From TrEMBL:
PROSITE patterns (UniProt xref): GUANYLATE_CYCLASE_2 (PS50125), PROKAR_LIPOPROTEIN (PS51257)
A UniProt-annotated Pfam family: Guanylate_cyc
Name of this protein: Adenylate/guanylate cyclase domain-containing protein
Transmembrane segments: 7-26, 369-390, 396-415, 427-446
InterPro entries, sorted: A/G_cyclase, Adenylyl/Guanylyl_Cyclase_3/4, CHASE2, Nucleotide_cyclase
Domain (Guanylate cyclase): residue spans on this chain: 488-628
SMART domains: CHASE2 (SM01080), CYCc (SM00044)
């Protein structure tokens, strides 16, 4: 149940993370929008728009102009002279990025109005009242030179005068609906003096709306004023660059707004926003709320002409011929400074100039109508891929594929920007899918670590540390259920344990300590040689090799363990004997017998639904247990099976013991003993012993009793080990066979009657 829940969470938690990312993108929260803008800013910084001179100029009221012509605001007569000189120099249209909201304080009547009221100034005030008003003169010049566009700004404040609407709009794609339904509507306005607006060929917005971070990226092409007018409803005003474009073309006052869903506009839905605006012969694309993306070139000095140079006649011949001129300011004290993706500080008038250049070049940035849907779809597809793939493939391949997909998305976005000036955001979907990937990987890691802890906990007392770590790193090797494997089994039992137990009748705790003291070093001998402890059965140890992980040379390692266990036992007995002498107690040595066998077994998790153990079953297991029981009967420490002996005989001193049918089995097997390691095997004494021993076994099975007895007499004199119990057993058999011969068909098999 716990494993099933873990598997569900491996999918569910990343799915919840993906859902949260989708919701954040769907709601387009500020953080998501800012990330998207940062991507588009980076693209512009890497590849800004190439500057092409299309005759857009900025007459700059800069610090130089203020120094030469006086502080701002200038008299309107000076501004009248400025526009006159611009038109004479060949400017096709002149637009102000300045609002003249208050009367000129330098008009004669206003100047003398501030003087003391006395008899000496009365005549002067009378004469001044007959002089022309500067605002009236400025209005006359605006009307007289023509092609002048004044500026207005819509605000969220209170409405005073309603700005004059010169350029207006018709709508295509939503019969009977007003443009104001699709664009922002503001409540207030900063306007020029009515006389100035009435004299101008156009009146336009200078609204430049920066983002939350203060950077200008989009500028409204049109805005609505919340002031219902007869017949037209809420008036809609064009931006300065678009109005100048209309005046420059001598285009009709009515510009056409095309909505998405109209003929020629593409969208998945109909009438869901502005698509483009037609101004004379030119079309300007727009986002759904009437904004234009500004594709900046960065500061180009070629655009700028100081106003003082115009007034002083310091212009090259033809410098302003057929140009569109914007009058604005870069002087820091006049506070008309903005930020763009390319420049932290630039004059606000430059934004309008760059927009007008784009309109004339018909070179626009645009965010396709399908961009949001495509980005969302990419997020869903890649996110679901990670959710499904990570639990199945692990973190590596999904990461490789994910990097390729994200790299492809970034590459496609960059290609679309460079080749088609399209704005497609690869960042949010990439970051969101990376978050999903990390979540899935983290859960997989935690799940894997949990499995490793479980494996370590389950096997740390049964396996060697090296095998435990291998299994923890690759838990998939631990197959649930059973599997067939070629294995080597070892059984170890304490001889005479009943007698030892009786001596501890009054001290059961001491008996437990003794058993633990014995089993600990014996267990270490097994674990140090890559063995697995299957179980402890009182004073008995059951161990195996080659499961759950592969163990090369497992028969040899089992035999090495068996020999090492006797070395450890002798050290323990020496220690206990010394302790017994020191305490004046009777010393009872511990003795063990070991059986080792190799064969095919079933190994795996076995038990019930409530409790199970990793264990092994099979005929080879039963035989190993029986071999351990025969070690006492044959008077040897270790008894090994035939398959084990065949494998290890080149590395250990091995002697055949008998051909025996152990209890519970009808089939006879050859059994052997291991006397020592390779050094003993290669010794001359063992070679002589092995030769005579094998000859004795051959003579025994050939019923040559005299030769057997002769050989046995010589074998008893070997100096390698004490095999007297074994040889006594053969002498007893021969005595019995002399009285009752086994017959000519006897095959030498001894049928065991005890375990």
């Amino acid at each position: 149940m716990r494993k099933k829940l873990s598997g569900i969470l491996h999918y569910l938690i990343p799915l919840l993370v993906l859902a949260a990312c989708i919701i954040l993108r769907w709601q387009d929260v500020p953080l998501v929008g800012q990330l998207r803008m940062n991507v588009f800013d980076t693209y512009q910084r890497i590849a800004p728009r190439d500057f092409q001179d299309v005759g857009v100029r900025i007459v700059d009221i800069d610090d130089k102009s203020l120094a030469e012509l006086g502080q701002w605001p200038w008299p309107r007569t000076r501004l009248a002279e400025l526009i006159y000189k611009l038109r004479v120099a060949g400017a096709a249209v002149v637009g102000f990025d300045i609002i003249f909201a208050e009367p000129d304080r330098t008009s004669p009547a206003r100047v003398v109005g501030d003087w003391p009221q006395d008899d000496n100034s009365a005549e002067i005030r009378k004469l001044a009242g007959n002089l022309p008003d500067h605002d009236a003169l400025f209005a006359q010049f605006i009307d007289g030179v023509g092609q002048i566009v004044t500026a207005t700004q819509l605000t969220n404040g209170k409405l005073g005068n309603v700005p004059r609407q010169v350029g207006n709009f018709s709508i295509a794609g939503a019969q009977g609906r007003n443009i104001a339904e699709y664009i922002p509507t503001l409540s207030g306005a900063a306007t020029n003096l009515p006389a100035l607006e009435d004299a101008a060929a156009g009146n336009a917005l200078i609204n430049v709306t920066p983002g939350a971070d203060g950077v200008v990226r989009r500028v409204p092409l049109l805005l609505a004023l919340d002031a219902e007018q007869p017949l037209i409803g809420k008036p809609v005003y064009p931006t300065l660059s678009m109005e100048m474009l209309r005046v420059m073309q001598d285009a009709p006052r009515t510009m056409n707004v095309r909505l998405s869903g109209a003929s020629g506009a593409a969208s998945w839905t109909t009438s869901d926003g502005v698509d483009a605006i037609r101004v004379g012969q030119l079309t300007i694309p727009s986002d759904a709320t009437g904004n234009m993306w500004v594709y900046f070139t960065g500061h180009e000095q070629q655009r700028y002409i100081s106003a003082s140079d115009v007034m002083n006649g310091n212009l090259p011949e033809g410098a302003l011929q057929d140009t569109a001129v914007l009058i604005g300011t870069s002087a820091a004290g006049l506070l008309d400074l903005r930020s763009s993706p390319l420049n932290p500080v630039l004059p606000g008038v430059e934004v309008h100039a760059e927009m007008l250049e784009q309109m004339l070049l018909q070179q626009f940035l645009s965010r396709p109508y399908w961009a949001s849907q495509a980005e969302m779809l990419a997020l869903v597809i890649v996110g679901l891929f990670f959710i499904i793939a990570i639990p199945r493939l692990g973190p590596l391949w999904p990461a490789v594929i994910g990097v390729a997909l994200i790299g492809g998305a970034i590459g496609f976005s960059w290609w679309a920007f460079r080749q088609h000036h399209l704005l497609i955001d690869p960042l949010y979907a990439s970051l969101a899918t990376i978050l999903v990937y990390l979540t899935g990987s983290l859960i997989g890691f935690m799940r894997t670590e949990g499995e490793k802890r479980q494996v370590r906990g389950a096997f740390s007392t049964y396996l060697s540390p090296a095998l435990v770590e291998q299994l923890a790193q690759h838990p998939e090797r631990l197959k649930l259920g059973g599997e067939m494997r070629d294995m080597t089994l070892l059984f170890c039992d304490v001889r005479g344990f009943t007698t030892i137990s009786e001596s501890y009748k009054s001290d059961p705790q001491g008996l437990t300590q003794l058993i633990n003291r014995l089993l600990t070093p014996l267990t270490s001998c097994i674990l140090q040689r890559d063995g697995t402890i299957d179980k402890y059965m009182g004073d008995c140890i059951m161990a195996f090799w080659n499961a759950p992980l592969d163990v090369p040379l497992h028969p040899e390692k089992a035999c090495e363990s068996a020999l090492a266990m006797f070395v450890a036992l002798r050290a323990l007995n020496d220690e206990r004997e010394a302790e017994a002498k020191a305490e004046g107690k009777v010393f009872l040595p511990l003795n063990i017998g070991i059986g080792v066998n190799t064969g095919t077994c079933v190994v795996g998790n076995m038990g019930s639904d409530q409790r199970f153990d990793y264990s092994v079953l099979g005929d080879a297991v039963n035989l190993a247990s029986r071999l351990e029981g025969q070690s006492k009967n044959y008077g040897v420490d270790i008894v090994i099976g035939q398959d084990t002996a065949v494998t290890v005989s080149e590395r250990f001193a091995v002697l055949q013991l008998d051909l025996i049918a152990v209890k519970g089995k009808s089939e006879a097997v050859e059994i052997f003993t291991v006397l020592g390691d390779l050094d003993l095997r290669d010794s001359a004494d063992f070679a002589k012993l092995a030769q005579n021993h094998d000859a004795m076994i051959t003579a025994y099975r050939g019923q040559n009793w005299d030769l057997v007895e002769e050989l046995l007499a010589g074998l008893r004199e070997n100096t390698i080990c004490d095999l007297s119990v074994l040889y006594d057993m053969y002498n007893e058999r021969i005595s019995a066979f002399r009285k009752m011969p086994p017959g000519p068909e006897w095959d030498g098999v001894f049928v065991a009657t005890s375990k």
